[in-house]
Amino acid sequence: MTNESRQRASAEDRDTHDSSAIVFEGVTKRYSDGTVAVETLDLTLPAGELTVLVGPSGCGKTTTLRMINQLETLSEGRLLIGDRDVTSVDATRLRRQIGYVMQHSGLFPHKTIADNIAVVPRLLGWDKTRIRERVAALVELVGLDETLARRYPHQLSGGQQQRVGLARALAADPPILLMDEPFAAVDPIVRTHLQEEFLNLQRRVQKTIVMVTHDIDEAMKLGDRVAIFSQGGKLAQFDTPARLLSAPASEFVVDFIGADRELRRLALERLDSMELDAGLTAPRDEIVARARSYLQQAGSGGIVVLDEQRAPLGWLDWETLKQADDRARIDSLPLKAWRHRLYLHDNLRSALNALISSPGEVMPVLNAQGRYVGVIDQLQLTRRLS
Amino acid sequence: MNSDFMTLIAGVIDWFSQPMNWQGPGSIPEHVLEHVTYVVISTLIGAAIALPIGIGLGHSGRGGLMAINISNIGRAIPAFGVIILVFLLAGFGVIPVIVALVALAIPPMVTNSFVGMREVDPAVRQAAVALGMTGWQRLWQVELPIAMPLIMAGVRTSAVQVMSTATLAAYVGLGGLGRYLIDGLAVRDLSQVLVGAILVAVLAIVTELLLAGVQRLITAKGLQ
After folding, report:
1. SS3 state of residue A281
2. Which of A152, B41, B151, B157 supports an S-S bond with B108, CB 3.0-4.6 Å?
3. Range in A193-197, A226-230, B115-119 with the lowest mean pLDDT
4. Under an 8 A CB cutoff, do A95 and B132 touch?
5. Chain A hits for B129, Cβ within 8 Å
């Protein structure tokens, strides 16, 4: 490849990439009765990122979402996808290029799961083989069992139906995906699971995603960027979750994020971003007298006892050590267990939670193989927040 | 009383077993054929008028209440009155009968098809729009298939009602199974009246079963 053609190729890449950025320019939505749903909104949703629109009910977040695929019309302003003005594009053609996932899956009850997923490819006139292959790939992508493909929507659970809804939206591989409270109607356990899978999926497909939610936790967890709307369709702040927490633009944003703002900040950082203390440890075959001297030297209230694989066995505190026979092995003493296991990939909020219930003042941290790597204490977390 | 009843039953059995009642002019097959012809023509014309109205209004969601009210008023008008009225206006012939039966067939089909279309889950409707279906695609691929059980219930109600009311044709000198009722009453031959009644009842049941079969055939498997 010549230098010139390489440049052209990368320009083309950038074009297709940029062509799915969504730009609101002074967009207002006013209903005929005079209520304003969205007021002079200026907002650029970057291509390939997941933007979450969040706010109290009636703040215009859903209207904003629905303007993108012309389910709602604009009263004023311009709405561009890449450099195309959406109002200049035929609505049905536009919608076939934009995936749409809704709160209640909205699956067609008279069609099988496979036929539901195949709706948009059929509208686009794909041939049968191509549709069949695409449906099979999607069923796998969203983590459904392939035997479900021949079933009907009412035979599936709520979580499964949402997966089908997602598969249907992704069917024609649209560059843009709109999601209107996609996880709101499933129970909390399934929701957490779906959210995590969805994040993994997004890392692979890298679509421009716009998601509406009223749940600030969900917004902070999923969004690359979060747009917080206030009542009357005004944009209060548009930023990354970390920036929203560290530099909220107004009282409204502070209130909306909630009183536990500090905890949310902890949730955004993982233990592997911290410098862990080596901590005080002893192998299980250590004798009491030696362990006692370690503790006295370190001025610590207890010691982490490790097994042969360096996995923590339990916490041995000074009270227990003090009364024990000098020559006894420490693993013959009553060790205190931890209620939680903390891994390097856990976030600092989980770390705090584990610390609170820890029998000692520190909490051991494990690597992915379950081996001890160090300890964390409350002081370290507090320092991180300030 | 008891022996009267036995005589009546014997008369009915006698009627059904006479070979002359099974062929030629005025025979059972001829009257059944006439009767079924009135019913099929009226129900088809009624459906051709009622279903587009009910489905169209249900699809657009506008003017539905008015349509239902008008068709309910239609139900209150006696079919016999319509027959006499049109008979006086248009004169002798099959037209007054068909007009009356069509008027009778329309209301249940308008109401049911309208309600069937409105009952389609709004989320499903919205999904169809959001996926990029045109108005016609939404109608044919989503709304009609989902509304089909209720639409067919309306067709069945209409057809069965028309089947029993088509006996009125005999009042204006036409054929059909009403002949047995009118002629039997005229000569006080209750056996003949009962023969007519039994045949109408059997035809009504057959109609219901046939249409239920059709409904099964054209309703999507996921909705059954």
Report:
1. strand
2. B157
3. A193-197
4. yes
5. 71, 95
Closest CA to A266 of A158, A133, A378: A378
Cα distance between the two ends of chain B? 49
pLDDT tens per residue across span A221-272: 899 999 999 988 889 999 998 888 888 899 899 888 876 777 777 888 888 8
| Cα–Cα separations (whole angstroms), residue A176 to A17, A22, A147, A158, A210 | 11, 9, 29, 24, 8
What DSSP designation does A262 have?
H
User: What pLDDT digit, counting tens, does each position of A7-61 carry?
Assistant: 444 444 444 445 789 999 999 999 888 888 898 899 999 999 999 999 988 888 9
CATH of A272-385, one of 3.40.910.10, 3.30.450.40, 3.40.50.2000, 3.10.580.10: 3.10.580.10
Q: Which helix (H) or strand (E) holds A216?
A: helix A216-222
Q: Do A111 and B123 touch (CB under 8 A)?
A: no
In this predicted structure, what is the pLDDT of residue B1?
A: 53
Terminal CA-CA length for chain A: 52
- DSSP H helices, chain B, are 2-17, 28-60, 64-76, 79-90, 95-118, 122-130, 135-137, 144-165, 178-186, 190-218
Contact A92 B146 (CB under 8 A): no
Among chain B, residues having any CB pair with chain A shorter than 8 Å are 121, 123-124, 126-134, 137, 142, 145-146, 220-223
Task: Sort out which chain A residues have CB atoms less than 8 A from B221's CB and list them.
Answer: 110, 152
A222: left (phi over 0), alpha (psi -120 to 50) or beta: alpha
Question: For residues B63-92, b (16+ Cβ closer than 10 Å) or e, as one string?
Answer: ebeebbeebeebeeeebeebbbebbeeeee
Query: Among all chains, which residue has been given the structure tokens 């129970």?
Result: A187
Question: Residue A65 and residue B51: Cα distance in Å, rounded?
Answer: 36
Q: Give the span between the Cα atoms of B69 and A343, in whole angstroms.
A: 69
**Per the structure block, which two tokens stand in for A200?**
């993994």
ipTM value: 0.81
- Domains defined for chain B, CATH in brackets: 31-223 (1.10.3720.10)
Which residues in chain A are closer than 8 Å to B136, comparing Cβ atoms?
A: none
Q: Which residues contact A9 (CB under 8 A, 6 or more apart)?
A: A1
Grouping H, G, I as helix, E, B as strand and the rest as coil, residue B67 is helix
Query: What are the chain A neighbours of B132 within 8 Å (beta carbons)?
Result: 91-96, 120, 123
Residue A3 clears pLDDT 70, i.e. is over it: no
A332 Cβ contact partners less than 8 Å away, ≥ 6 residues apart: none
Do B220 and A110 lie within an 8 Å CB cutoff? yes
| Interface contact flag, B126 A102, Cβ < 8 Å | yes
Superfamily of the domain at A12-97+175-268:
P-loop containing nucleotide triphosphate hydrolases (3.40.50.300)
User: What distance lies between CA B50 and its chain's CA centroid?
Assistant: 12
Q: What is the DSSP string of A284-298?
A: TT-BHHHHHHHHHHH
Q: Do A107 and B128 count as a contact with CB atoms less than 8 A apart?
A: no
Identify the bridge partners of residue A322 per DSSP, sorted by sequence position: none
